[in-house]
Design a protein that fits this description.
Layout (H helix, E strand, L loop, with lengths): L3 E2 L2 H6 L3 E6 L8 H11 L7 E4 L6 E3 L9 E2 L2 E4 L6 E5 L3 E7 L4 E7 L1 H5 L2 H13 L6 E5 L9 E2 L1 H12 L6 E4 L2 E4 L1 H11 L7 E3 L24 E7 L1
Parallel strand pairs: 3-5, 3-7, 4-6, 10-14
Antiparallel strand pairs: 1-2, 2-15, 6-9, 7-15, 8-9, 8-10, 11-13, 12-13
Length: 236
């Protein structure tokens, strides 16, 4: 089994970044496991930088002074070369954000709380301020995460998203056998498009971690596993 997957559209069309998403035989929280992934993908592990994730909307800027520092937050941005960013998920939505023109990158960890707080939008806002990013130049990847097929939630949470957050004619949930299933993919696509990202530049892998629990860690399917998928993004 491979240690990670890549994204064909990024590999073929954006030559200045490395993007990898780890598979189930890797625990992204293990330095030894990540060393294998980074060596295989030619990623600079000594500069690997991640957050202490707290399901917030905090976006941390990685610069020369805080490489490899652990700070509370759920998104990271940088324009430094050879400084890979890493976020951890196991059903939550990982989002990679790549500025093709300014050569800056961001990663966002969007569980339902982060999605509700529009962490993807806030990450883009920080990139606009720090790197003069134009959202129309962004390419975004929605990685493996629990899909609307499996993410059963309460009716109250569904209504919270549809009335308070999106408030449009689209429905961001499905109903099966009187149960409600929230579509975090669709909500995050909506947030990205509302932030100015072109629809054609949003790559949704449509990989449900619950359906594909043989390939990816799933918090719900694997009995609240402490192991995590890692999304790694680096400017070469």
């Amino acid at each position: 089994m491979n240690n990670y997957i890549t994204v064909k559209e990024i590999e073929e069309n954006i030559d200045f970044v490395n993007l990898a998403i780890t598979l189930k035989n890797v625990d992204a929280k293990s330095r030894e496991d990540m060393k294998k992934v980074c060596e295989s993908k030619n990623i600079e592990i000594k500069n690997l930088t991640s957050n202490i994730q707290i399901h917030s909307d905090i976006v941390n800027v990685v610069n020369e002074n805080n490489i490899d520092e652990k700070i509370e937050g759920d998104a990271l941005v940088t324009n430094l070369k050879k400084v890979p960013l890493l976020i951890f998920t196991a059903d939550c939505v990982p989002i990679a954000i790549i500025d093709k023109k300014k050569k800056a990158i961001g990663l966002a960890h969007a569980g339902w709380r982060g999605t509700y707080d529009k962490i993807a939008e806030k990450t883009i806002e920080v990139m606009k301020k720090k790197y003069n990013t134009n959202p129309e130049d962004l390419v975004c990847v929605i990685g493996p995460s629990i899909g609307p097929c499996c993410y059963e939630v309460s009716k109250d949470l569904v209504e919270k998203f549809n009335t308070n957050l999106t408030n449009c004619d689209d429905k961001f949930y499905i109903i099966k056998e009187d149960k409600y299933y929230l579509d975090l993919w669709k909500v995050n696509e909506y947030v990205l498009k509302s932030s100015g990202v072109k629809e054609d530049n949003i790559i949704n892998l449509n990989l449900c971690t619950s359906c594909n629990c043989h390939k990816f860690h799933s918090y719900r399917k694997h009995d609240k596993t402490p192991q995590r998928i890692g999304m790694i993004l680096e400017i070469k």
